[in-house]
Specification:
single chain, 273 residues, alpha/beta, Alpha/beta knot, 7-stranded parallel beta sheet, 7 strands
């Protein structure tokens, strides 16, 4: 596993993103939690179509948990057509088969497409329907692509904030500069080959002393296996120091319980054969 590259933080470069269009959202709390999900993943363009309880809504701000900037800049429209009028590409999020001939994409596929479109200077948006029934067919008809979130067939229902969160996460990952997996090192650094070889020399010497590396003809392959094991672990410098301390403690305990152990330790200390 590679160590974390310098400057790796929590994710993606900020920049233009797709609009999130909530069609007839029913509760202020749902608008607020959707805004919070957007803020988590760098989305800022929120549009509402005929919110049931009107706008502004105090409950939305309370539920946003501090993502106020998304709510403060949102726009309200009288129709879905008006909300998407300035966009060149629209995705409609729905889990139901609408009997319409349209491409169907997962959030991951859609995020990659959106990244390309927005990098080309186009504008795009994602429609989300009301919590109870989802988008109307007339809303879906305005979209170029249907976006479907794969879920368990046993229970496929998602609430509004969950749907926005999943789509936002995939958008974020499509723009992320951080590696998908890395080793968090803290205050230490990856071990150098000099440190690793020192550990291996130390370990092999003690295994020889204990009679582990037998029969003799198998010793080279046994040592290679040990070396490969240590290399695969990608130890840090602190790991190496800890392991060498463990080896020293174990071998001293073993030697003290062997006949002539004290004499051998004395000879090691004086350099005698």
């Amino acid at each position: 596993m590679s160590p974390a590259p310098k400057g790796v933080g929590r994710g993606a470069k900020e920049g233009p993103g797709p609009a999130v269009i909530l069609v007839t959202p029913q509760m202020g709390e749902n608008i607020g939690t959707a805004a919070r999900a957007m803020a988590n993943f760098g989305l800022t363009d929120l549009r509402l179509v005929r919110p049931r309880d009107g706008w502004p809504n105090e409950r939305a701000f309370a539920a946003a948990s501090g993502a106020d900037w998304v709510l403060q800049d949102l726009r309200v429209f009288d129709s879905t057509a008006a909300a998407v009028a300035d966009l060149t590409r629209v995705y409609a999020t729905t889990a139901r088969d609408r009997d319409m001939v349209k491409p169907v994409a997962t959030p991951r596929t859609a995020a990659a497409e959106l990244r390309g479109l927005i990098d080309e200077g186009q504008s795009a948006g994602i429609l989300f329907g009301p919590e109870r029934a989802g988008l109307e067919n007339d809303d879906v008809a305005l979209a170029h692509t249907v976006l479907t979130i794969p879920t368990s067939p046993r229970f496929w229902s998602l609430n509004l904030a969950q749907a926005v969160l999943l789509v936002g996460y995939e958008w974020h990952m499509a723009t992320a500069e951080a590696p998908e997996k890395y080793l968090r090192l803290g205050a230490t650094e990856p071990a150098t080959q000099f440190e690793i070889q020192g550990l291996l020399d130390h370990l092999v010497a003690e295994l020889d002393e204990a009679g582990f590396l037998k029969p003799v003809e198998k010793k080279p392959s046994m040592v290679r296996n040990i070396s490969n094991f240590v290399q695969r672990a990608e130890p840090t410098g602190q790991d190496i120091r800890t392991l060498r301390g463990i080896i020293r403690s174990l071998t001293r305990s073993f030697q003290r319980n062997q006949p002539g152990a004290l004499e051998r330790l004395r000879r090691r200390g004086t350099g005698e054969p």
